[in-house]
């Protein structure tokens, strides 16, 4: 039994070493990826529930890895978070989003600017010069600042360490004209207290409440209640992960304002989205 225990321990140890090695490799590669401009943004359509009209997009990060191909953010964001590399990567995401907000504002009827929702990591939210960076980018590119929305998840890191600092950063971003959204509402550490404390324009209902909504009366009750709460606080309410017409219909009947999910479109490269913008009926 003793040797079996040791063998087990050794295996565990080897796995740990592999994990550390993998992390190190990804970290080195992330540095290089920034230099070589291997990151790309994909954009997923967000539509008005009532009309189906495209109103904004969510910017979703991808890594065009030279060997492994297109990598999903779940494969590298955790390492980027841990090493702090998420800060320069995140700045790139914001700049790219501003550039495209400007470009799409010119492409489209200027009365109908396209919103761009940008994910902010907890680390970025606590970064002292985030507001300066955003302010600089808002001056560099010209577009209605209300087009850019920063969405953040209430996680242990961001909120438990320094909620006042996070709230101040969000308020400063809002003072620049940007909008603020709470992501994945109803999961993790998001609580009602934070809705009061943070300046929030939009509430995004997590996909886990949408998945089973066609069958589950409980999910319907949760979405109805959260939507009512959001509206009572003057917030726009959005649901993500909409995959079927029936889910869309139910969410619309529950008074959700905006819908996002594969049913309306996958995250797609800039060129594809532009084709959709120029010819909305082709969707
Ligand atoms: P998220 O913010 O919850 O983004 C939504 C995720 O759900 C995206 O995954 C999207 O592709 C996926 N999705 C959209 N519609 C559907 C659907 O109908 N069904 C299903 N099953 N999935 C759907 P993605 O692009 O892999 O991104 C994963 C996560 O990575 C994001 O979750 C976000 O937390 C993070 N992320 C993405 N881009 C960035 C970024 O620029 N910065 C930071 N900090 N995080 C990012
Ligand atoms: Ca998001
Ligand atoms: Ca989510
Ligand atoms: Ca998430």
Query: Helix proportion of residues, in percent?
Result: 40-55%
Number of strand elements: 9
Strand order within the widest beta sheet: 1-2-4-5-6-7-8-9
Q: How far apart, in Å, are the first and last alpha carbons?
A: 63 Å
Listed once per kind, the bound small molecules are:
ligand C2E, calcium ion
Rg measurement, Å:
20 Å
**Percent of residues in β-strands:** 15-25%
Major sheet summary line: 8 strands, mixed, barrel
Poorly predicted regions: none
Order of helices and strands: HEEEHHEHHEHHEHEHEHEH
Q: Enumerate how many helices there are, as a single number.
A: 11
How would you describe what is shown here?
The N and C termini lie far apart (63 Å). 48% of the residues lie in helices and 19% in strands. Strands 1-2-4-5-6-7-8-9 form an eight-stranded mixed beta barrel, surrounded by five helices. The model has no long low-confidence stretch (mean pLDDT 91). By secondary structure, it is an alpha/beta fold. Bound molecules: ligand C2E and calcium ion (3 copies).
Which key features would you list for this structure?
globular, 283 residues, 11 helices, alpha/beta, single chain, eight-stranded mixed beta barrel, binds ligand C2E, binds calcium ion
